[in-house]
Write a structure and sequence with these properties.
Largest sheet: 5 strands, mixed
CATH architecture: Roll
Helix content: 10-25%
Number of domains: 1
Number of strands: 5
Shape: globular
Structural class: alpha+beta
Number of helices: 2
Radius of gyration: 15 Å
CATH topology: Archaeosine Trna-guanine Transglycosylase, Chain: A, domain 4
Distance between the termini: 14 Å
Order of helices and strands: EHEEEEH
CATH class: Mainly Beta
């Protein structure tokens, strides 16, 4: 089980916070697995095409990965490209996050 700190754009962050978006689609460059913990931090990208900088809003939330649907060229039934995944997510309670992060620090 891992903790993944991820940037989350404002529109997506808001939908996740409200409970309207119960999944997260990502490039699977981190080998996401069920029972991993996502630390989503709201990120506002730069307004200008000439600036590579963006900013964190300070809003953050934690979610458990409950399911991972992997993309694959071999399995075209999913419609998800190889190297990507869609994760089912469920809000993590504050006490769960504290216990999980405390274990990781030991």
């Amino acid at each position: 089980m891992k903790i993944h700190k991820l940037k989350c754009w404002p529109d997506f962050y808001e939908a996740i916070e409200k409970g309207d978006k119960t999944f997260e689609a990502r490039r699977n460059d981190r080998n996401f697995k069920v029972n991993d913990l996502l630390h989503l931090r709201e990120w506002s990208p730069a307004d200008s095409l000439h600036s590579a900088l963006g900013t964190y809003s300070g809003r953050e939330c934690w979610f458990w990965v409950t399911y991972v649907l992997h993309g694959s060229e071999a399995n075209q039934k999913t419609g998800i490209a190889e190297g990507f995944c869609v994760m089912g997510i469920a809000r993590a309670a504050v006490d769960e996050v504290k216990r999980f992060t405390a274990k990781k620090r030991k």
